[in-house]
Design goal:
The structure is a single chain. The chain is an alpha/beta fold. Helices cover 37% and strands 21% of the residues. The strands form five sheets. Strands 11, 12, 13, 14, 19, 20, 21, 22, 23, 24, 27 and 28 form a twelve-stranded mixed sheet that branches. A six-stranded mixed sheet has the order 3-2-1-4-5-6, with helices on both faces. It has a four-stranded mixed sheet with strand order 7-8-9-10, sandwiched between helices. Mean pLDDT is 87; it is low at 1-5 and 761-765.
């Protein structure tokens, strides 16, 4: 090179730039090569590189520091300018002589007060909290022209010692640009706006004449380590478990301190957990993620949230696999559901409580330690057991136990479940859900069965007492019941009549010594609504009377409770009975359990957990009417004599039976023109109490209609008839209308019929009948003549 020796770095570097070269092109070339060779390192804008190159060529220390404080940048600059390798050492020496030490701390106050006492307070706070004992020197102070005019003389000493340099800007925006250039890659920046990287940002806030810094020990830490702590590495990003909520936070109003605190808090799981205790609105992960996005922060999830997300996903998978909805229950509701499942058959259900997914009465298709399977073994509900017990009953079984009292005693001999069984009985009978009687198969060896039964003496006669087909005096659908059945409710203080006397049958099988009552009464279905939407009380509304009452958990909050029934009898229907509704009704029938509806936590909870918002209950219109039926001793004596006659006649006929089989049973000749129709069927219903023989009897009233009694039903069998002149007469037998025989293994219904076709001496009988008819005609004519004479 023929040029004289240059004495400054800028002079030397300009010698390597030809007239055709443009600084802009050289800056772009340098930046292009830097990005290609160091893709992971910081990249600048072309304007920044062009500015630093211009400063370097003008021997500006800031530009020289940018390139020559960093060997890779200096090497690349010398390469782009084409400086020979043997010149590199001399140029580095010139650079070392020319550059001044850059600031280690850059302070930007250009956005703060520009006049008055506030500005004075700012300079005082800055001197005392930052400049006076700062371990970082030199310091560059960026301020506005207005602020510079009020710069205190107390700053002169540091300026003179070159510990402090002043940089005036026209605006806060220009201040940011100046700060970025001064800070370069090394200095700590104290500013009320977010500087990148965060490891070199000391957040500052000036309010109420006080300067606040975050972090408070940043100067000391930076002096020791050359950087502030980095953001925590986010191992479990929050956006991995949720989507941001559609909510807006006013993050633009945050101060620098708030922004820096939240940037570090959201990235730290420990700090996030602590912050959530103070900020309830961010406890929802979706809301917190929206907050982080708007703040420009990376948010971490907490261990609790990750577990919740795992459980939610597990619950969704399990629900989809089993095709059921998954509930979320608190510990109290969880305990209630399990307790309920111990008491009643419960369908498949899935819910989450705490940190587990609970599966009730099902097999999990997913093997997971957080899935807990429950298989309680509840007792079969009394309603189901009672229905099963009577499902095989025959007609005479139902007639022998019209109120199902004996069925209850058989199922609950100790009385431990008496309230439930009484309620089940009332529910079945008031809903007319008694199963239709079953008819056993016809007994093939009927003769042998009857012959064995009739070989012994007959039992005491019983009666099949029935109400007449219609009775206008008993318009409310009367039924019959045994007086002694009331002992089932004897332990109750005042049992409701619907519970004590449920609707029975119009025909019952009566043993001697048992009192029979006629009962009547009407019912209606009341539609009731339960509204649990209020947290303080539950509303019970009777749709029929348009009245409602609120049941409070606190006794002091409520008034009278007189519209909630003490006996809940649900309206049920076939084909599939709602056993769950029945169980709910049992639990809420206060008269069964000896308590009353009142304002209390227990009653409020019972209504709230009914599980349905509407229930139809059976309500009595009024108290039931009842009247005894007189069964005089003579009716039993008559029954015994009639039974003995029938017993002997049947026994004799079955020694060598003359019989034919029909679709309805067997017709067996008894002699004398009389036959017995025998419908004999196998029995597989209720256990038999020995042998029963019962005649049909019908209830009638006295002429005044005030008392009731029963008489055995008879029918006439006409075996002979004759006609003399214009007069006809029939003659025959007066026999019981029907007889029911019930043995342990079969039952037989016996009716009688007669026909002259079965008479052995018909001609002689007719002659006798003719004489009888003639005598009767003569008597009637004589009576008529006497009547005429009286006239």
């Amino acid at each position: 090179m023929d040029n004289p020796v240059m004495t400054t770095l800028g002079d030397v570097l300009r010698q390597y730039i030809s007239e055709q070269d443009k600084q802009v092109a050289l800056a772009h070339r340098w930046l292009e090569l830097w990005r290609a060779r160091f893709p992971r390192k910081k990249a600048w804008s072309p304007d920044t590189i062009e500015s630093h190159l211009s400063r370097t060529l003008k021997n500006d220390p800031q530009g020289i520091r940018f390139f020559f404080d960093n060997p890779p940048r200096a090497d690349l600059l010398l390469e782009v300018l084409g400086v020979p390798a043997d010149e590199h050492a001399r140029l580095r020496t010139l650079a070392a002589d020319a550059r001044q030490p850059g600031p280690r701390l850059v302070v930007d106050i250009s956005a703060w007060p520009v006049r008055g006492e506030a500005l004075d307070a700012l300079f005082t706070e800055l001197r005392q909290k930052v400049l006076r004992d700062s371990p970082l020197k030199p310091v560059a102070l960026v301020l506005s022209e207005e602020q510079y005019e009020r710069l205190p003389r107390s700053y002169d000493e540091q300026i003179n010692h070159k510990f402090l340099s002043i940089h005036k800007v026209a605006s806060a925006t220009e201040g940011r640009t100046q700060v970025a250039e001064l800070a370069d890659d090394a200095a700590l920046v104290l500013a009320p706006w977010q500087f990148q990287p965060l490891e070199r940002w000391l957040a500052a806030e000036f309010a109420k004449d006080t300067l606040s810094l975050e972090p408070g020990d940043a100067l000391a830490v930076f002096a020791e380590h050359g950087a502030l702590p980095s953001l925590s590495a986010v191992e479990h990003p929050l956006d991995g478990i949720c989507e941001p909520a559609e909510v807006t936070f006013r993050v633009e109003e945050f101060t620098a301190l708030q922004r820096r605190i939240w940037l570090y808090t959201l990235a730290s799981e420990a700090r996030t957990t602590a912050a959530l205790e103070r900020h309830e609105n961010l406890q929802d992960p979706a809301q917190r993620l929206a907050f982080a996005h708007q703040l420009g922060a990376v948010a971490t999830s907490t261990e609790r949230e990750r577990l919740d997300h795992e459980l939610d996903q597990l619950a969704t998978r399990l629900g989809e696999a089993l095709h059921v909805a998954v509930d979320r229950l608190d510990p109290a509701a969880h305990a209630d559901r399990l307790a309920r499942a111990e008491l009643r058959p419960t369908p498949l259900a899935v819910w989450r409580c705490g940190d587990a997914i609970h599966l009730l009465n099902g097999d999990s298709p997913i093997d997971h330690p957080r899935i807990v399977v429950h298989r309680p073994a509840p007792a079969v509900p009394a309603l189901t057991r009672l229905l099963a017990h009577i499902s095989g009953w025959t007609e005479d079984d139902h007639e022998a136990d019209p109120s199902l009292a004996r069925a209850i005693e058989a199922l609950d001999p100790q009385g431990n479940e008496r309230p439930a069984f009484l309620h089940a009985r009332a529910t079945l009978l008031w809903n007319d859900l008694r199963p239709a009687p079953r008819q056993g198969a016809s007994l093939e060896r009927w003769a042998e069965g009857l012959r064995e039964l009739l070989a012994g003496d007959p039992p005491p006669a019983s009666l099949r007492v029935r109400l007449p087909p219609s009775d206008p005096k008993l318009a409310n659908g009367p039924w019959l019941a045994f007086a002694d059945d009331a002992h089932l409710t004897s332990s109750f203080e005042s049992p409701p009549s619907l519970l004590s006397w449920p609707r029975g049958r119009r025909t019952i099988l009566v043993d001697r010594g048992r009192e029979v009552y006629i009962l009547s009464g009407s019912i209606h279905a009341r539609q009731c609504h339960i509204d649990a939407s209020n947290d303080r009380f539950v509303t019970f509304k009777d749709a029929r009377y348009y009245g409602s009452v609120n049941v409070f958990g606190e006794p002091k909050d409520g008034g009278y409770l007189n519209s909630i029934p003490n006996l809940w009898l649900p309206k049920l229907a076939r084909p599939s009975l709602d056993v769950d509704a029945w169980l709910d009704a049992v639990e809420r029938s206060s008269s069964l359990h000896g308590w009353k509806w009142q304002h209390s936590a227990r009653c409020e909870k019972l209504l709230r957990t009914t599980g349905r918002s509407q229930i139809d209950l059976i309500i009595g219109e009024r108290e039931l009417d009842s009247a005894p039926v007189t069964l005089a001793p003579r009716i039993w004596q008559e029954g015994d004599l009639l039974l003995a006659q029938c017993w002997l006649a049947l026994r004799l006929a079955l020694e060598r039976p003359l019989a034919v089989r029909l679709a309805t049973g067997v017709v067996c000749s008894l002699g004398g023109g009389v036959c017995a129709h025998l419908a004999v069927h196998e029995r597989d219903g209720a256990p038999s109490r020995g042998t029963i023989a019962a005649f049909g009897a019908t209830i009638a009233t006295n002429p005044l209609g005030t008392t009731y009694s029963a008489a055995i039903d008879f029918t006439s069998l006409w075996t002979h008839s004759a006609v003399v002149e214009n007069h006809a007469a029939s003659f025959g037998l007066h026999v019981p209308a029907n007889l029911v025989l019930r043995a342990p293994t079969f039952s037989a219904t016996v009716t009688f019929l007669a026909s002259p076709l079965l008479q052995a001496s018909t001609p002689a009988a007719i002659g006798t009948l003719a004489a009888t008819v003639a005598a009767r005609i003569a008597d009637e004519e004589a009576q008529q003549a006497a009547y005429d004479d009286d006239d």
